[in-house]
């Protein structure tokens, strides 16, 4: 082993103090240690290096040429260590870093954008990365630590993961604003008998499809559902320009689109939860999770009489429940 590996970082601090104060006693006083400790450790340092770093006299100490060169590098080493400690401390406190989030809900309004805004207020140095997808995509990603957390619907269970309910949203029927159902303040399932629906082939379209089939079939209706290989914005434009309906969650209705009307589906509440690995030690994520739980408690309980419907309604985005 290199003999320089035997001395400790504090030896460098003793050397720097001796050089700055020009004497052993003054350095010891500044460091809060005994003069003999400073003298002995600097001697050990010189012995390890194999060169005298100071000229010692009754009047104090002065650096040798080797000492001057060594002092320059010692100060750099101390600065690097201090910077590394500060940087690690900032990351350890969750003030910097990256949090990878799996989404199945919209960031247009509601709990998630409020959570992000509150989190950024105290963690501006953290970068949030988002991945859209469904439960089948996000749960394995959380288990494999490719995502720190996934915000999913229902009471999703995942092996090796922790789950916490955070918030609820109503389910809305989306229709052209000229549609006859737009005159209603609230839509019932029997109002949807014989209607045409359109869903996206991308998430959460397949889940919406299964949700409609389940509920309308239970009423004895075989729903007419068309799938389109488009994303949400294009899907909404198709709805606005035609006569088909679709479903969406409450968070998306903040985006008011031309020609579109949103009406709540009576009694249908969609429950959302966070899924994460208990082995995840990302401090920035842990801060986000803690804040989410606090905000969830403040947001209140389920609307009266709605909890029983919530688990059923969560099938809209997770029919495997």
**Strand numbers in spatial order across the main sheet:** 4-3-5-10-6-9
Shape: rod-shaped
End-to-end CA span:
60 Å
CATH topology of the largest domain, anyone?
Answer: D-Maltodextrin-Binding Protein, domain 2
Helix content: 40-55%
Domains (count): 2
Alpha-beta content class: alpha/beta
Protein model, in words:
The protein is an alpha/beta fold and 321 residues long. It has ten helices and ten strands. It has helices spanning 9-21, 24-31, 35-49, 65-92, 111-122, 135-143, 205-218, 232-241, 283-299, 307-313; strands at residues 54-57, 60-63, 96-103, 125-132, 149-153, 162-176, 196-200, 224-228, 246-249, 260-276. The strands form three sheets. It has a six-stranded mixed beta sheet. Strands 1-2 form a two-stranded antiparallel ribbon. It starts with 8 loop residues before the first helix and ends in an 8-residue tail after the last helix.
In short:
The protein has 321 residues and is α/β, with parallel strands linked by helices. It has helices at residues 9-21, 24-31, 35-49, 65-92, 111-122, 135-143, 205-218, 232-241, 283-299, 307-313; strands at 54-57, 60-63, 96-103, 125-132, 149-153, 162-176, 196-200, 224-228, 246-249, 260-276.
Key structural traits:
about 25% strand, disordered C terminus, 6-stranded mixed beta sheet, alpha/beta, about 325 residues, D-Maltodextrin-Binding Protein, domain 2
């Amino acid at each position: 082993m290199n003999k320089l590996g035997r001395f400790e970082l504090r030896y460098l601090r003793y050397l720097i103090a001796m050089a700055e104060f020009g004497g052993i006693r003054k350095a010891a006083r500044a460091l809060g240690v005994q003069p003999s400790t400073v003298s002995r450790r600097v001697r050990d340092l010189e012995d390890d290096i194999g060169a005298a770093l100071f000229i010692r006299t009754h009047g104090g100490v002065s650096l040798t040429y080797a000492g001057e060169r060594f002092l320059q590098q010692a100060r750099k080493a101390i600065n690097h260590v201090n910077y590394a400690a500060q940087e690690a401390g900032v990351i350890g406190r969750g003030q910097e870093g990256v949090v990878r989030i799996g989404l199945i809900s919209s960031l247009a309004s509601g709990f998630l954008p409020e959570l992000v805004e509150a989190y950024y207020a105290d963690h501006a140095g953290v970068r949030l990365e988002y991945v859209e997808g469904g439960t089948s995509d996000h749960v394995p990603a959380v288990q494999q630590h490719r995502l720190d957390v996934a915000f999913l619907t229902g009471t999703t269970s995942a092996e090796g993961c922790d789950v916490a309910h955070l918030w609820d949203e109503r389910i809305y029927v989306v229709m052209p604003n000229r549609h006859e159902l737009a005159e209603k303040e609230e839509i019932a399932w029997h109002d949807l008998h014989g209607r045409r629906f359109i869903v996206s082939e991308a998430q959460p379209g397949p889940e919406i499809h299964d949700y409609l089939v389940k509920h309308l079939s239970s009423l004895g209706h075989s729903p007419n559902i068309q799938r389109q290989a488009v994303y949400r914005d294009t899907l909404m434009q198709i709805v606005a320009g035609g006569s088909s309906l679709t479903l969406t969650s409450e968070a998306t209705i903040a985006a008011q689109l031309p020609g579109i009307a949103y009406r709540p589906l009576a009694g249908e509440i969609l429950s959302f939860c966070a899924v994460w690995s208990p082995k995840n030690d990302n401090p920035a994520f842990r801060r986000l999770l803690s804040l989410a739980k606090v905000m969830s408690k403040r947001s209140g309980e389920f609307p009266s009489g709605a909890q029983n419907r919530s688990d059923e309604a969560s099938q809209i985005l997770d029919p495997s429940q």
